[in-house]
Amino acid sequence: MKTSSEFLGEYQNVHMNVFGTPLRVMEHGEGCRIWDVDGKEYLDFLAGIAVNALGYAHKTWTEAISRQAAKLAHVSNYFATPGQIELACKLLRLAETPEGSRVYFCNSGTEANEAALKLARLHGHALANKKTEPARIIALTHGFHGRTLGSLSATWKPAIRNAFEPLIPGIEFVEASDEDDIKRAFDESDKRGPVSAVILELIQGEAGVLPVGAEYSRCVRKLCDDFGALMIIDEVQTGIGRTGAWFAFQREDLSGGITPDAITFAKGAGSGFPIGGLITFGNKVSSLFTPGSHGSTFAGNPLAAAAGLATIEAIESENLIDNAEKRGIQLREGISGLSNPLFESVRGQGLLNAIVLTKPCAHAAMQWALEHGLIINAPSPDVLRLAPPLIVSEEEMNEAIKILSSMPEYLEQD
Ligand SMILES: Cc1ncc(COP(=O)(O)O)c(C=O)c1O
User: Angle at CA 246, nearest 5°, toward 303 and 103?
Assistant: First the structure.
């Protein structure tokens, strides 16, 4: 086998340079561990950025995909498959949706949000009348919803938006967690057109695992109710057990107990197999899409559905939601108990967590951890994100905390 550096030399000759130089070249994984082509072992506390809920090579998942691949890998959406129907039923049950709710499948987080934004547009057309401007969609500062043009238009970070302007019109930003700011935006409806939807994450993952707050979520719900707008929660990173509940909106401490009009999901839903989707709550919002208004060749593909069903089956049979909650508490208590002067605080829910650093050296800290056999990442200059597989054990959590305890205080600043 070639070495990492030989592979990386070739990588750069054939791939577009959108991801920079990869950190390592990975070869295989098992449970929460992964090995690179040079044979070095890592404890993976990033899980493919909150994707590999079941870790690597989980038996239930591997067998389900292999069985399905041998039977039927893909049909078009001219046809349905049993797995796709079963998965939709399960997701509606897990999201505790009311009568008339529906699922639309796609292949990634950004696509799920594209679907949600198109839904918001259809809803907005019904709200706007000839006397007013077209309906607006509100997104939050620091929010991340993806990189395709629609989702990018609702994504805040100027560094990833600016080069692609003009983005799609009618999406505007309000200050995250600032109730007055979003009230102001709604109050301008007479002058500036109605608001068709608010799209938000309850924990802004890419911004550094920042919760918007239960009170704020309640405020958004009330404004949406008062003005007839849809509340769309992006659960791409928080969904499928990651925060210690099937979906973050089901945690009172994150959502204030509200029910959204729609949620989007992806990442952990297939535990490594690409799948995403949109769930609409109740009849009205579920009837906005009609035949031809949206679609995708791979949407609800039988292999993806098998991966989704296996993921849910393993989460349920192994009590992984409960494990996410317990291991999350262990992680936050463990980090808080360390006397590492580099660590200012720790925050998160379930297994979506961040360590806030006393210095802006997160990139070097991530590199240091990698050298010491622990995979984490740096969503911002002073924040490290820890999102291990939901199967992580008590021992593995202690092992990660031990590695982090010896992280040096002085590292190169970003
Ligand atoms: C909250 C949120 N929404 C959307 C996305 C985009 O998902 P994808 O990369 O699958 O397109 C991400 C990815 O990090 C995310 O965290």
Answer: 50
